[in-house]
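Dear colleague,

Following up on Tuesday's group meeting, I ran the structure prediction for the two-component complex that the binding team flagged. I've pasted the input sequences exactly as they went in, so you can double-check that nothing got truncated or mislabelled along the way. The structure tokens for the whole assembly follow below. Feel free to forward this to whoever is handling the docking comparison.

Inputs:
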Amino acid sequence: MNWTAIWVTFKLASLTAVALVIVGLPIAYWVTFSRRRWKFIVESIVALPLVLPPTVLGFYILVAIGPHSPFGQFYSEIVGHPLPFTFEGLLFASILYSLPFAVQPFAAAFDQVDRRLIEASWTLGVSKLKTFLKLIVPLSAAGVITGFVLSFAHTLGEFGVVLMVGGNIDGVTRTVSIDIYDEVQALNYAGAAKTAAFLLAISYLVLLLVYAMNRKVWAVWPQK
Amino acid sequence: MAAEISVDITKTFPGRAPIRARFLYAVEAATVLILFGPSGSGKTTILRSIAGLEWPEEGYIRFISRTWLDTASQIRVSPQERHIGYMAQDYALFPHYSVAGNIAYGLGEMSSAGKTARVDEMVELFQLRGFEHAKPHELSGGQQQRVALARAVAPRPQLLLLDEPLSALDAPTRLQLRGELRTLLRQLALPSIIVTHDWAEALTLGDIMAVVGEGRVLQVGTPQDVFSRPADAQVAKVVGVETIVQGTVVETRDGLATVRVGRVLLTAVASTEVGRDAFVCMRSEDVTLELGETKGTSARNHLPGKVSAISSLGALARITLDCGFPLTAVITRSAVHELELTVGSSVNAVFKAGSVHLIPRQ
């Protein structure tokens, strides 16, 4: 087994999941509680990676972060090297690619929080931000953990986007799924089988966790 | 600046008649204003607007010297900045906090010693000793109500807003807590606004009452005044009970209480302590009028009286009698003609003991 690829993959998946909690919670809050009529536009954009072929998403990200785009130029000037075919570039792409896997469970959980609890918090003088942290997030704990785990699992298995944005640099951007593809191309079926079985086991365990939690086997908070 | 709340708001929900409420409420410690009306009359919307949880599209809300809402000058003070205590109908306790955690929730800026002391004070006042670490779902309905009230009161609000404070409870508990709540409100000495559709609650808890019907404030006065002298037919329809007089329980026997109202004795189905002062309430529909003395009737109360006023209510007529106290009866117009009733006629008012409701009040 290619332990370097496994290490890269886990580092990528963990950082993506953490970043998505930070980025996804505010987006989910806005999507759930905003009264703007045009919020469906934002919801559709967030959901796009669910239906878009990863190569298409990867292509646009590559163009967007490439040295010819304003963002790519800005990044090169600040950091000193361009974003594509680096681990950071891959992380950026992964965050966009897994966005709906975090935002949708977050938003679904927020939607379940009784509005009267939120109103009670406001009338007690607690700000909207503190209400979010003290009330909405704890009461949505199962949804937040689900979103975290799903985006982690989804990043583990990504292929098309990695190929487009990350390339195939050993120890930097070569992930497990790319490694399996390489092994098969090299007709090394035994090596591919081992890595594939490993990925299958991990993915299955992660999903077990999610489904067990949503059946309230671990009722994190007693429901009313 | 007068110590009062002045409200003049218009709020429209799609598909419903707009709510246009306008009233003044002189804010004094321990004065309780009742917003009374049937469900759907708009009273909860008025309360939520005062709390800052609904935004009327037009109007203003002023509390003492502060403006909380003024659509003309774009002032919209958030609920956080109004320093109110608000209790929703279903209490909205935070399920993941303990009783103490719920009470301490709104004490954000206090030191932790200050918080502990304040929570302890609330636990004592609201008789929650021993339940500090219980979660809301482990409590009875009455205890939940006390936690919700303690939580609302703990940050020392300037105004207390209660939405149907007793309606989530079962009937026997509600009866018991009605008196308790009155005592607590007295102790807290906070200006309060309470929404209710229950006239017994309005009488027990209120010092002043605003009747709300179809989104408008129809009449403001003391509960006893509003109930016994509704300003017009619409108010009479909303309040339902028209005879309310003060009396004293002089005797109780076999579940029946004898109440003295002025010089008149009435029999009521109640087991109130002797010596208690109470409001004696009767629905006008429950009072029958008879000419002369009838022999053999199951009704316990027979009061001779003189007709002092007759007003028409369409097919019905409202007759006000003087039988030592003013008593209202609603009878059909044909009965008025048959009995040849005019102002000054002598009649007997007959009603069952079960139609006499006693609302004890301290």
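The mean pLDDT of chain B is 89.

Cheers,
M.
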